[in-house]
Write a structure and sequence with these properties.
single chain, eight-stranded mixed sheet, Metallo-beta-lactamase, Chain A, six-stranded mixed sheet, mainly beta
């Protein structure tokens, strides 16, 4: 069940205090009042100009200067870890795990940075893709009492205990660079009332349609804003030959024999 008064339309959540749209990959757009906030926009579609852009770390598919510049106006603020902030232009504020900010451009929004790092995902040379010392972050956003957690690229880590009780948890799923679906279910289980939306840390296409259950027993689905199972697809009609789909008797093309 979603929190009271919330509703889902396609790839958008409408909460009491904000609306949230998935933009692909790890990118999201949050609208609250007259303010617009983007998180990790990468190849994002055109939309309202940003009052605030939040970047979790410096990898190209999370910190895209092209997207940042396209979605910004002269008053846009960017908040990111120090390694990203020093590469950005305009109005920039750096943030580190454990730090908090409140910015005038988005009244009613409280931003807290949470650590994000790998514990087991390594490259062929044994190096962690997102080491703790890199200072990557996730964001715990409080919008007039409703909380949203975007974890950034991370594994299941002890720092996630700080976001217990959030209303929405946005978690990366790939198994290669970030959590597996099972690990994401474990992470989401730390907040029994959170509504989970796994995003992808592996590609810009829609996440896999994996179904899992969290510790609370609630089902969530990668790549969908719905907690219900996908409606069954209508069966293809049978042709005169008795086969489903396009009948080979009506087509000038024939499949080659195996």
């Amino acid at each position: 069940m979603l929190p009271g008064g919330w509703k889902v339309e396609g790839l958008c959540i409408h909460a009491q205090s904000f609306s949230l749209v998935w933009l692909g990959h790890s990118g999201f757009r949050l609208s609250t009042g007259r303010s617009t906030v983007y998180i990790d926009p990468y190849r994002a579609p055109d939309g309202p100009k940003a009052d605030l852009i939040l970047i979790t770390h410096g990898h190209y598919d999370h910190f895209s200067l092209q997207d940042v510049e396209r979605l910004s106006h002269p008053g846009t603020w960017l908040v990111a870890p120090a390694a990203v902030a020093e590469r950005a232009r305009g109005q920039v504020a750096s943030i580190a795990p454990g730090e908090e900010l409140e910015l005038e451009p988005v009244p009613g929004l409280h931003v807290a940075a949470v650590a994000a790092y790998n514990t087991s995902k390594r490259d062929t040379e044994g190096r962690l893709f997102h080491p703790r010392e890199a200072g990557c972050v996730g964001f715990d956003l409080n919008v007039r009492g409703e909380r949203l957690y975007h974890s950034g690229d991370t594994d299941v880590i002890p720092e996630m205990d700080a976001v217990a009780g959030v209303d929405v948890a946005l978690l990366p799923v790939s198994g290669q660079y970030v959590m597996t679906a099972g690990e994401a279910a474990e992470a989401a289980g730390g907040s029994s009332r959170a509504w989970r939306c796994p995003c992808t840390g592996a590609s810009t296409s829609a996440p896999a349609r994996t179904r899992r259950r969290s510790r609370s027993g609630r089902r969530w689905r990668c790549g969908s804003w719905s907690e219900r199972a996908r409606a069954p697809q209508p069966r293809a009609r049978r042709g005169p030959c008795g086969r489903r789909g396009r009948c080979p008797r009506r087509s000038p093309y024939r499949p080659r024999p195996g």
